[in-house]
Specification:
Blueprint: E1 2-9, H1 13-28, H2 31-34, E2 38-43, E3 48-55, H3 58-78, E4 82-89
Antiparallel strand pairs: 1-3, 1-4, 2-3
C-alpha cells in the first residue's frame, strides 16, 4: 500500500472546519476516479487537519497527486496555513471490520 499524507495547520478551528468540508468534497468525491483504497481526514481541536490517502500502486498515487495538487494550492491561497506532505509505504496497518451484533 502506498500512502500520501498531508498535514495542515490552520490558525484556528473555524478555518480548519471549512477546510475539512472542502477536502471531504474534493477528495472524497474522487474516490472511484482515483482508485483510492482508503481515505482518512482527521481534525483536532487545535485546528490541525491530517489527510491520509492510500493507494494500491505508486502510479495511482502519482496520478492522484498530479490531479489533486490544485486542491491544496487552493487552500493555501484561501487560508493562512502550514502544509507538510509525505509519501510513505504502509509497513503495518490494521482496520477492524464493522460487525453487526443482534
Amino acid at each position: 500500500m502506498f500512502t500520501k499524507v498531508y498535514n495542515l495547520k490552520f490558525p484556528g478551528i473555524e478555518e480548519a472546519k471549512i477546510a475539512v468540508s472542502f477536502l471531504s468534497e474534493e477528495i472524497g468525491g474522487s474516490i472511484a476516479d482515483a482508485n483510492i483504497s482508503n481515505l482518512s481526514i482527521l481534525l483536532d481541536k487545535e485546528g490541525q487537519v491530517s489527510v491520509s490517502v492510500r493507494f494500491d500502486s505508486a502510479s495511482e498515487m502519482k496520478k492522484f497527486c498530479a490531479a489533486k495538487g490544485e486542491v491544496f494550492d487552493g487552500l493555501r491561497k484561501s487560508f493562512t496555513l502550514k502544509l507538510q506532505e509525505m509519501s510513505a509505504v504502509a509497513v503495518f496497518n490494521y482496520d477492524r471490520e464493522a460487525m453487526s451484533t443482534m
